[in-house]
Amino acid sequence: MILSRRAAIAAGIGAAALPALAFAAAPTHRRLIFVIQRGAADGLAIAAPTGDPAFAGARAALAAEAATGTRLDTLFTLHPAMEGAAALFAAREAHVVHAVATAYRDRSHFDGQNILEGGGTRPYGRADGWLNRMLSLLPEGERSALAVAPSVPLALRGALPVATYVPSRLPQADADLIARLSALYESDALLHPLWESAVRTQELAGDIGGNNGRNGADLGRLAASLMTPADGARVMMVETGGWDTHSNQHGRLAGQLRGLDQLVGALKTGLGPAWADTLVIVATEFGRTVAVNGSGGTDHGTGSAALLFGGDLARGGTVAADWPGLASTALLAGRDLKPTRSLERVIAGAVAHHYALDPVQVGRALYPELLA
After folding, report:
1. Which residues contact 87 (CB under 8 A, 6 or more apart)?
2. Which of the residues 61, 88, 213, 247 has an alpha carbon 20 to 30 A from that of 294?
3. Can you give the pTM of this predicted structure?
4. Alpha helical stretches, state H, the chain
5. Cα dist. 39→16, 84, 104, 290, 294 in Å?
6. For residue range 120-158, what is the model confidence (pLDDT) as tens digits?
7. Can you say whether the dihedral through the CA atoms of 203, 208, 212, 217 is positive or negative?
8. Which secondary-structure segment (H or E) carries 138?
C-alpha cells in the first residue's frame, strides 16, 4: 500500500516520522518506456565524437561512416541511420547523455545487464529491479506495467505485479490456424482479448534490425498499442538484442540503429497526443572499445551513451557529457571510453523530472545501494 502525503497528514503522521517513505505522486497520465539494448551498444557510433581530434585515428573506417550523420553540436554526430532521432533532437524531443556507465566495470554481458536492471552494486546482488521499485512511487491506479519480452526481465521483477508476453515455444502456427482459432474465440469474453493480444505480440521479431529496420517499427507500434488505451500499460520495458558487434560492425550496427530509430518513431506516432506525456529511456549494459578490432568490429568496453526521448524532456535537443577525450592517455585501461557520469543518476534524474518527484527520493527508491 502506498500512503500519500495527504493521507499521512490526515492520519496525523508527520513527514519527519517517515524519513524513508517515498510519497506517491499525484495522479498522472504519464508513460515511461525502458528500452534495453542487450549486447553492449557502441555509444561511440551512436553519438560519434567527431570533434575529438583522436576519434578519426582510433575508429579508422568506422569514422568515415560517422561523419555522414547529423551534427548534434561541435563535438558529437548522430549515426546516419538515426534520421528520425535527428528530427526529434531538432524538436528538443531527444537528449543524449555520453560517457556514461553503471557501477559495473568488467566485461560480462550477463553480469552487466544484471547490474543495469537490478540497480545494485554487484552482479546478482538484487532479486528485484529498478523499474519495479519505481512503480511504488506512482499512484496505485497507474502502476500497470508490462514487459514485451520472453519472460519478466529483472528490471521489472519485484514486489509489485507486472504483466509480460511469453512467446510460444511451439512451432509457428500458419495463418489458417490462427484465423480458425480467432474465429473460435470470437465470442469468448475471457479468451478473445487474450488471444488477440497474443496474436499481435506473436508478430514481433526478435531482431529490430531485421527487415531493413521495419521490425523495429512493428515493435514500436505494438508497444504503443498496448500503452494507448486508458486502461493500458503505463510503464513498459522493451528488450532489443543484436548489439554485440564484434565483427562487421559497419552494416550490422546501421541496421540495429535503423530499427531503434523506427521503433521510437512508431512509438511517437502510435501514442499520438500521449507522446507529450511519455519518456523513453534507451540504455545498454556497457560500451565497446575505442579501437576497431581485426574483424571490423569492436570489443567489450566500458563507457557508452544513453538516449532519452519524449515530449517533455528537461534538456531536449542537447548532449550532456563531461567528455574525457579519446587520446590514449585518457582511456580507461588504455582501451575504453572512460565513464564520467553515472547511468543510474541519469535514469533517476530523468524519472524524477518526468513524474515531478523529489530526485532524492527517486534515487533512494530506484538505487538504494548507490543513491541512498
Report:
1. none
2. 213
3. 0.84
4. 5-10, 43-46, 55-59, 61-66, 83-90, 109-118, 130-135, 175-185, 191-202, 214-227, 249-271, 343-355, 359-366
5. 44, 23, 14, 16, 19
6. 999 999 999 999 999 999 998 889 999 987 678 999 999
7. positive
8. none
* CB 299 within 8 Å of CB 336: no
Cell numbers at residue 165, please? 508476453
CA–CA dist 329, 67 (Å, integer): 24
Q: Can you read off the three cell numbers belonging to residue 107?
A: 566485461
Gap between the Cα atoms of 15 and 283, Å rounded: 35
Q: Report the alpha-carbon distance of residue 353 to residue 226 in Å, rounded.
A: 24
Please give the Cα distance from 263 to 239 (Å, whole number).
12
User: Rounded to 5 degrees, what angle do the CA atoms 327, 300, 333 make?
Assistant: 40
Which helix (H) or strand (E) segment is 146 a member of? strand 145-148
Average pLDDT for the chain: 87
